[in-house]
Amino acid sequence: MIKKEMFDKNFQENMVLNFDVSSLTSIGTGGKCLYFLKIENRKSLLDTVTKLTENSVKFIVIASGTNILFNDGFLNIAVLKLGKEFNYLRFAKAPKIIAGAACNLQRFIVDCARHGYDFSFLAGIPGTVGGAVMGNSGGNDNFLNDSLQEIRYFAVNKNKVEDKTIEIKNASQYRSFHVADLAVLTDIILQGEKEDRELIFKKIRENIKIKKAKQPLNSKNAGCFFKNIKGCHLKTGEMIDKCGLKNFSYGGARISNKHANFLENHSNASSKDLLILSKIIKYFVKSGFNKELEYEVSMIGF
Ligand SMILES: Cc1cc2nc3c(=O)[nH]c(=O)nc-3n(C[C@H](O)[C@H](O)[C@H](O)COP(=O)(O)OP(=O)(O)OC[C@H]3O[C@@H](n4cnc5c(N)ncnc54)[C@H](O)[C@@H]3O)c2cc1C
Hints:
Layout: H1 9-12, E1 15-20, E2 32-39, H2 42-54, E3 59-62, E4 68-70, E5 74-82, E6 89-91, E7 96-100, H3 105-114, H4 129-134, E8 138-139, E9 142-143, E10 148-157, E11 160-167, E12 182-191, H5 197-214, E13 221-224, H6 236-242, E14 249-250, E15 253-255, E16 262-265, H7 271-289, E17 298-300
Parallel strand pairs: 2-5, 3-5, 4-17
Antiparallel strand pairs: 1-2, 6-7, 7-12, 8-9, 10-11, 10-12, 13-16, 14-15, 15-16
This protein binds flavin-adenine dinucleotide.
């Protein structure tokens, strides 16, 4: 068992035992984890990951928690969140952009636009640059990871923790990003594409308008719950809608009336309510369209 006293005094203060993870996510459900640690700098991160690894404590990193569902009850994991030193954005010699994993995604888009780089397809998507890379976020068939050049991360191999930088090529997998030994993504190096600034801001405004019209931005949800299916002429939301499931609820969980691929915590839902609702959707889509849906949200502790 790992004890609080084993950690450096500076970050003992930032370590909370038996932490309520529902407060970390946009959907607002889930139980309690073993420890929650906010980590402000690289040295603390190295110490923490090393101690957790040496003591065989499983951990995950959470960013803004906008694409994640934790199970109810007790979760035997530590949850880490990156702080100050990982929240930065720098513009190096064009076209190189360097972001800390904890940099807010909307700040990234707007600052990039000011420098004439077009990431307007990400406008209105909540979260961080790190979270967006881990899920290869995007919209309208554009993906953030198409611009990835390099990443810096903490790798865990058996009991060894290593600070690594690698080049990235062909990271365009739909809504996923896979680096075998990646435990914590810390820095992201991208190549931007230049565009007229006014035009970029116009596209940002238009994309936000479209998002507001199509997605339930004011309810408690985790974005699209399921991935779209490659080669399928219907989007997953359209299939769920065609099954007549919009507005269908189970317990406190409901399928959004605005966008059927968004599951909402509309009335003190538990994660179990959301899980059961997701299984009902899977059943109907399989029966109606003979398609197997895959979760887009990260399902933790199920
Ligand atoms: C209203 C709404 C609308 C949305 N619309 C879109 C959309 O149009 N397109 C789209 O692609 N997504 C959309 N999303 C989903 C979500 O916003 C994105 O996936 C976002 O990029 C997730 O970022 P995050 O910082 O919240 O990551 P989190 O949800 O905190 O984490 C996501 C995953 O990444 C891992 N992770 C995060 N940071 C790190 C790190 N530093 N190191 C290692 N692992 C890490 C987590 O463990 C988790 O598995 C939407 C969500 C909401 C709530």
